[in-house]
Amino acid sequence: MYVTHDVTMTEQNRTRETYCEVNALALLLLSSSQQGADAFTTAAQRPNHLPTTTTSLAAEGFGPSAVKERPAVIDTNLTADEAKQALIDLIPRMTGKEEEYRAVESYVNLLEKKYSPVQTIDFLNLAISGEWQLLFSTNLTGNPNRKLRLRELVQNIEADGFGGSLTNSAQWDYADNEEGTFDSNGNFSIKCSYKINQGARMVIDLDGHELRPAKGSGVPSDIPAMVALLHRAIPKELFDPDNHAMDTTYLDAELRIARLTGPKYEGVRNIFFRKGQLEIKPV
Of the given ranges (78-82, 165-169, 185-189, 279-283), which has the lowest mean pLDDT? Predict the structure, then answer.
């Protein structure tokens, strides 16, 4: 992991950051790799030592090994535009109820059934390039921590033929004090490259992580501890997408649904909205 800073650093901070570059992420992933790896996998996919949760049952239909498709909890006669709008209206108002997750599942399944995949690489690249704000992940497992606040999660895609770069960025505020006052802020980037090997499937390689405090911000005194909180707060498939592929299962000018396939996040869905096109006002 690379830690960069835009303002003058003390020698102590430089030493701390050098240590973090070498050790922080490796130790973090080693200790956390089995903690809530996939909140929405089916029971057959979930390791025995992980607890079964209400949310894992709620999206079981997303998984490729679901025994049967469960009855939808929405009007299946909706058009794609109606399902899209209903999904966008629902997500900011979710309170954790099982029927809400089942409704998300049903809207996503409906949109995917109605979707006609892009037929040319040039049109695909034009459609997916740019910044996409994460609205929902079926793999959110971390509990909020009062010391860390994520303001947004954005995925930026820069397409170049049958490949390109993909960067997941989290804007963060951090409270490095007992009072819980946010006194540092910045950006955490997960930098990846990808290749398209069949259809629109993007095979992802993780290139590195970068923690960049904002100009004028304080530097957290315990960077590994802060990165550990980021690891808990960011969906795991965005924090460590290595050895996975991403299928675009729905795409229009504003909404994108991506399905992960791979050893840890098989069947996980991410729902994105093009940045700047939607103002979310949770109730």
Answer: 279-283
